[in-house]
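User: I would dearly like some help making sense of a protein record. This is the protein in question:
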Amino acid sequence: MNLIITCARHLETETKQELIGILDKIGDSKPRIIITDMSGILTVETVLDPINIVKKIKEMLLDEPWCVRYCLRVIPIQKITKTQIEEIEKGVLELIKFISDEESYRISIEKRNSNISSQDLISRIASKIKNKVSLEFPEKIILIEILGNTTGISVVKTTDILSVEKIKRSNSE
């Protein structure tokens, strides 16, 4: 998986159809889209760059706000690990090369179907990173998306995560 998509509960099938159309327009005619057993969560395996997909969908939204009706958030994933503190930590350490020495960061964890301690995870990872922490306005976000036994990790800018509602709201102002 290299994308996590959120949608309203019970609209997963419609969201999957919408994604097939969007990804086909962007250049992937055969994405693997899985409706997870967690309500409102889909995972996507695509041959395209996940961060580039977010940019393209944003452009589509700015051009035609109603071309996306079901997707709520589009989250790019750069690394997949097992949901174990050591594995997640190892995965994050592989990706921190995307944070330059001057950039501030924040660790964001979203947990679904897991009882891993967010605090333990944050403490272990933060102790290995020398950069300045900025909870309000970080230049990079270490994103940890826990979906049961699988965890997706990314190091991204805030603009690399798509919130469809925010784009539509800012577009209408």
Observations:
- The chain has five helices and nine strands.
- The two ends are 34 Å apart (CA to CA).
